[in-house]
Write a structure and sequence with these properties.
By secondary structure, the protein is α/β, with parallel strands linked by helices. The protein has one domain: Rossmann fold (3-Layer(aba) Sandwich), CATH 3.40.50. Helices cover about 25% and strands about 20% of the residues. The strands form two sheets. A nine-stranded mixed beta sheet has the order 1-2-11-10-3-6-8-7-9, sandwiched between helices. A two-stranded antiparallel ribbon has the order 4-5. Strand 10, helix 7 and strand 11 form a beta-alpha-beta unit. The relative contact order is 0.17. The N terminus is likely disordered. The structure holds S-adenosylmethionine.
Length: about 300
């Protein structure tokens, strides 16, 4: 029997926050989370009752196809209804702002993307990854997929989390960032790539992959998992800068390859809403979440530019 199409969401209301309480972690995620002595990394392990009214968006486009929320991602994910989102792109904290050095514009500077990027220790960081990955899996539709970016600081925890939570990893993309900053210590190879994991909700998922389009975009040859895409150019930062902004070309490829017209894309750590920009251009609906008002204000300018 063919799969029934997923029930349509009301596109005018995007009524996603219908939980009377907040979803707790699945028994599997709860069992996997190790206690962190003396550390409450701000993680809530239990379901909490009585959330009340749906949260108000920080911004909604005139046709309500693009929305931004100012919130802690975990808090908001826990309020979203089961199986309501077609694709999730997550560019989470990599936890790399811990006193190291890097090179910006030829100068040696401390790596400091912001307080949100500081590590809570290996176990605290891994618990955090398990919690949000678990919620993402709950709210993904059965055939939905999740993308997660990272470097060695977070990607092994994320990859292990995907495996133990029963996602099916489909690809690990190596994003080659042409012209990376030089390695100042001269004791390592220059860090020139980021990893982007693409996973289906489960082994049974019949995930979307717009293969002919990707082949066409690659000059008639199958597109490989090594992507050469330069960092964002100046015009992508014309409304202001986000310290870890992703290139629009990267998100255009991801959204075009793995979603269809009008589908709903969620970015729980949206920053300057590069994912939303790609969704606006490609006719997908978008929900972005970020804790920082400054980044959401930048996102609003970028999204309004696309309308
Ligand atoms: C790596 S950046 C995302 C950049 C984005 N992809 C872009 O192109 O601009 C991660 C973002 O997550 C936000 N963030 C970190 N922890 C968060 C949390 N617990 N809940 C919501 N947002 C969070 C930060 O404010 C930051 O803007």
């Amino acid at each position: 029997m063919p799969d029934l199409p997923a029930p349509a969401l009301d596109p005018t209301t995007l009524d996603l926050f219908d939980r009377p309480d907040a979803a707790g972690p699945s028994p599997r995620a709860a069992a996997l989370m190790a206690p962190v002595p003396g550390l409450d990394a701000g993680l809530v392990h239990e379901a909490r009752p009585g959330y009340g009214d749906p949260p108000a968006p920080f911004y909604a486009s005139p046709d309500d196809s693009l929305r931004l929320y100012q919130a802690d991602a975990l808090d908001l994910l826990r309020r979203m209804r089961d199986e309501s989102v077609d694709m999730i792109f997550a560019d989470p904290p990599y936890f790399l702002s811990n006193g190291g050095i890097t090179c910006v514009g030829g100068r040696m500077v401390k790596v400091d993307k912001g307080g949100w990027d500081k590590s809570a220790g290996i176990t605290g960081d891994h618990n955090f990854n398990l919690l949000w990955l678990d919620q993402c899996r709950r709210i993904l539709r059965p055939n939905g997929t999740l993308w997660v970016t990272g470097t060695s600081h977070n990607i092994h925890s994320v990859g292990y989390g995907l495996q133990v939570l029963d996602y099916k990893i489909l690809n690990d993309i190596a994003w080659y960032k042409i012209n990376p900053p030089p390695n100042l210590a001269c004791r390592y190879f220059t860090h020139a790539t980021e990893t982007i994991l693409w996973a289906a909700k489960s082994a049974k998922s019949r995930h979307t992959f717009n293969y002919p389009l990707m082949k066409e975009q690659n000059g008639g040859k199958q597109m490989e998992s090594l992507w050469q895409i330069p960092p964002p150019c100046a015009s992508e930062k014309r409304h202001g800068k986000h310290p870890t902004q992703k290139p629009e070309a990267l998100l255009m490829r991801i959204v075009a390859a793995t979603t269809n017209q009008d589908e709903l894309v969620l970015d729980p750590f949206c920053g300057s809403a590069t994912t939303g920009v790609a969704c606006a251009r490609l006719g997908r609906r978008f929900i972005g979440i970020d804790r920082e008002q400054e980044f959401l204000a930048l996102s609003v300018k970028r999204l309004a530019d696309e309308l």
